[in-house]
């Protein structure tokens, strides 16, 4: 076997063809996007019971199961208010037996569940939350691609999960607005914060999100 001299770091964007060149000949990506839209391909080797917390990615991706079985639970981006997010992850770790005293709104999140077996490919659209558990030892590949114009994405993103730059800028502006409101006495801060929420509900949500 060839000795691989180049040391790959977590700062490299994953590409199974480069990091595991012996496998390159075995890999043929599904023909669903242009070559220049390709972002990464991640080699996934999982032990039985391995669970990945509920999170979203900002790029579309295929989860390709080569061997073994996985259970994937998906939640719509519209259910974000019920998932107790911290960044891109949900704080509800046990989705099968959630702590409802702590996370009461979680019951409102609608779950879509599927079983992935060898040869199956699951399309996970950007922003859809997913929680993955390996039911047996398995090998798989994730393929991520950019479906927005490439300038929308954060250039420092290595995992396909950094929010688009416009979303990050908007979040910073919102933080500044909240700091500005803090200059007011509590009663006024509360009133104007509620008005801001109403303004966002009125202006920013797409009609499909209502
Ligand atoms: O299969 C896994 O272990 C994780 C897959 C995943 O998180 C993804 O497709 O983004």
Set out the fold topology.
Elements lengths: L15 H4 L18 E9 L4 E5 L4 E8 L2 E6 L9 E2 L2 E2 L20 E6 L4 E4 L4 E6 L3 E8 L19 H17 L4 H18 L7
Antiparallel strand pairs: 1-10, 2-9, 3-8, 3-10, 4-7, 4-9, 5-6
This protein binds 2-oxoglutaric acid (AKG).
Write a structural description.
Helix content is 19%, strand content 27%. It has 210 residues and is α+β, with helices and mostly antiparallel strands. Strands 1-10-3-8 form a four-stranded antiparallel β-sheet, with no helix packed on it. A four-stranded antiparallel β-sheet has the order 2-9-4-7, with no helix packed on it. Strand 5 (85-86) and strand 6 form a beta hairpin. Bound molecules: 2-oxoglutaric acid. 2-oxoglutaric acid binds next to strand 1, strand 3, strand 9 and strand 10.
The CATH C-level name of the largest domain is Mainly Beta
Strand content is 25-35%
Q: Strand tally, please?
A: 10
Q: Helical region count?
A: 3
Overall structural domain count: 2
Please provide the ordered H/E string of secondary-structure elements: HEEEEEEEEEEHH
Spans of at least 5 consecutive residues with low confidence: 1-5
Biggest sheet overview:
4 strands, antiparallel
**Distinct ligand kinds:** 2-oxoglutaric acid
CATH 2nd-level architecture of the largest domain: Sandwich
What is the residue-mean pLDDT, rounded to a whole number?
91
Structural class: alpha+beta
N-end to C-end Cα span: 57 Å
What Rg, in angstroms, do the CA atoms define? 20 Å
Q: In CATH, what is the homologous superfamily of the largest domain?
A: Cupin
Helix content: 10-25%
Spatial shape: globular
CATH topological fold name of the largest domain: Jelly Rolls
- Record the strand order, biggest sheet: 1-10-3-8
């Amino acid at each position: 076997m060839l000795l691989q001299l180049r040391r790959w770091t977590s700062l490299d964007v994953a590409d199974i063809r480069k990091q595991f060149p012996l496998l390159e000949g075995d890999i043929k990506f599904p023909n669903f996007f242009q070559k220049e839209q390709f972002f990464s391909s991640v080699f996934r080797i999982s032990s039985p019971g391995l669970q990945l917390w509920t999170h979203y990615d900002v790029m579309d991706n295929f989860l390709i199961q080569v061997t073994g079985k996985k259970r994937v639970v998906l939640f719509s981006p519209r259910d974000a208010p019920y998932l107790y997010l911290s960044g891109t992850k949900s704080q509800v770790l046990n989705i099968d037996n959630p702590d409802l005293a702590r996370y009461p709104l979680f019951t409102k999140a609608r779950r879509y569940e599927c079983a992935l077996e060898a040869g199956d490919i699951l399309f996970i659209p950007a922003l859809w939350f997913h929680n993955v558990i390996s039911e047996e030892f398995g090998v798989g590949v994730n393929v991520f691609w950019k479906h927005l114009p490439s300038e929308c994405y954060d250039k420092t993103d290595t995992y396909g999960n950094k929010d688009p730059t416009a979303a990050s800028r908007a979040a910073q502006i919102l933080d500044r607005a909240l700091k500005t409101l803090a200059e007011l006495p509590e009663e006024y801060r509360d009133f104007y914060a509620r008005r801001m929420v109403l303004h966002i509900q009125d202006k920013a949500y797409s009609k499909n999100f209502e």
